[in-house]
Each structure stands twice: as structure tokens, then as C-alpha cells.
Amino acid sequence: MNRYSFFPQLLALPLLLAACAPVGAEDIGVQSSERHDFRVVTVAEDLDHPWGLAFLPNGDMLVTERRGRLRLIKDGELQATAIGGTPDVVARGQGGLLDVALHPDFAENQLVYLSYAGAGDGGAGTEVVRGRLVNTRLHDLEVIFRAAPKTGGRNHYGSRLVFAPDGTLYITVGDRVRYQDQAQDPGDHLGTVVRVNDDGSVPADNPLIDQAGARPEVFTYGHRNAQGLAWRPGAEQLWLSEHGPRGGDEVNLLKPGANYGWPEITYGINYNGTPVSDRTSAPGMEQPVVYWDPSIAPSGLAFYEGEAFPNWQDNLFVGALAHQHLRRLELVEDQVVAQEALLEDLDERIRDVRVGPDGLIYVLTDSSDGRLLRLEPVGG
Questions:
Q1: Each residue of 10-48: pLDDT tens digit?
Q2: Going edge to edge, which strands form the sheet with 111-120?
Q3: pLDDT tens digits, one per residue of 48-76
Q4: Contact 81, 136 (CB under 8 A)
Q5: Which of 106, 156, 171, 302 places its Cα 20 to 30 Å from the Cα of 242?
Q6: Which residues are catalytic?
């Protein structure tokens, strides 16, 4: 299993650093990387802590803002008025309106899915709602998933959404910090990835559906706070990135019903320097494909598939919040063989990364004046 630290002297394989050009006020300009030169273009700005991005069939885009607004980018312009009909959210700490995804048959049914921190008895928790987008408003809003239990605290909601080719929906749920030990218990949703049908019902082939005491929605457990989730094209694999504590950020290849160890095993420590666990491995618990120590704070996750950047085919891109860059991982089969840090000179927290239908790469920067950026190829 490949495991890497952030610092080059600790890497088992080379960390490739991008030589970035200075950032201009309007035109960010051309940057160089190991495999491709690319131009960075600002698509939209003045976004308030944007979190998730979805591409509509007509080329427009939806962007969530954590405070609770769903924004529309129409004909390349950010619209001043937010989409109406969104759910009430608990917008404090890491909570708020989080990810957005379109139903695989959106062109026919116009269904939009939103994850968010929702209030209830006991505090707050991850929820998912769907509604029908008609012009600039969501209609027929329906909650299809509520993580149980609701808890106190302001952080660790997880909340990334991904539809698989079979039409099922995967949802990451954080451990809610003070309840981290419950990540080892598939009898609740804390610290899990759940798998549901598009209406929130439980697929008959879920891995723990017949396990006594387990929640039937649970697909994997033993996670801390996963904010990246991506389907690998052509491989029928679901990959996940999750925040460690102080060190121990991970990328994992998900296996049905598997336990990913948190907090029984970890490569990180508590923020105050005390151990979380004295073990980094244990029988019956999965090892990460790669981990980082110190933390880079990984968020959005995307595999590249497109024609614009042929030398990035099947590369995995990870948004880094703490070290403020976009990280590119080269894979050989299921092993990471090289890494590269892009966009370092922007000094921006990268919250999400997506590959658009045009084959270009889009990233969201996490701040009160966040931006949607597009990476475009340069030259041949």
C-alpha cells in the first residue's frame, strides 16, 4: 500500500511541484505542471463559501453557498437572485448548505439533490433533500435521507453526494467530532458512507442489509469526515477522501461493507498532540491507498476523463484546504505512483473539484469571496 507524507523528504515516491505564474487581478494566466501547461480562468466570483457544483444539460451551473443559497451561473454569468425553494439549513461551523447533485435522468425529471446540515431533536445532522427545478425555483421538496442520530456540535457533516452508474446515491456522513467512537458502529449513520435509491429507499443488495443491528443504508463505516467522493470511470470503483485529525488525511478505495478503522486505527494524532490510537493497522480494517502527514485537509475529489488534457487521463484530483492547492495523483491500477501540487500561488482553499462535460477542470475556492475557476489546456 502506498503511503506518502506531504513533505518531499518523507515521500516514498516523488512529489511533483507545479511552477505557478503570478496571479493577476483579472487574468490568472498560464501555469506549468509536469504533464500539461494550463490557463486558469475565473468563471464566477463573489461566492460566499461555495461548497458544491453541478453542471446542467444546457451548460449552466448550480453552486451551493454554505450559508444556505443555491446560485445559478447562466450563460457564463452568476445570477444575482438565488434559486428559490431550498431547505432551511443550520449554517454554523462547518454546517449549512453543502453538496449538490443532479439525478442521472435530470433532463427528463429535473430533480436536484442537496445535502445540508438539518436541525432536529438532539441537535443537527446530515440530510439530503430533492426537488424539481423549474426555471429558478425548486418545487415538491422531499427529504430522502436524515442521518441518525442528530447531535450537538458544529462540525463534521461529511455531505458529499455521488450517483453511481446503477442509479444509486452515495452520501458521506461525518462522525460529528465528539461522537467519533460511533464511527465503529454501523448501527447508526455517524462516520459512514450510505447508499440509497434515488427516492431514499434501501437497495436490496446493500452489504449490511442482513447484518443484525446495522443500519441497512450503511455501505462502509469507520470514517472521520469524508468530503470527497468520486466514481472512477470504467473501473466500477468508488473512491473517497477524508479529513484526518492532525495528520492522517486519507484517500480510500471503498469496498462494500468494509470498516476503514477510524478512530481505532489512524495515522494522525489529536490536535493537542495526544494520541488518538496506538495503532495504524488492525485485522478487519482497511488501509488507505494514500495518506498525508501533516494534513492537507482534502475536500472535493474527481477523476479526470476527457480530451482536453490527454496526459491527465485517469488522474485523481483532490482539493486541499489547509495547504491551499489542487493535488493531482497519478495512478497505476489502484496504486498512487506520483503526486503534484497545482494552483499553489493562488493562496486559496480549494473546496471542490469537478470535471465538466466540456472536459475542462473546475474548482471552487472556499472563502467569503470565493470563486469558480476553470483550468483550460495551453498549446499542443
A1: 333 333 333 333 333 345 789 989 999 999 999 999 999
A2: 97-102, 111-120, 123-134, 137-146
A3: 999 999 999 999 999 999 999 999 999 99
A4: yes
A5: 106
A6: 156
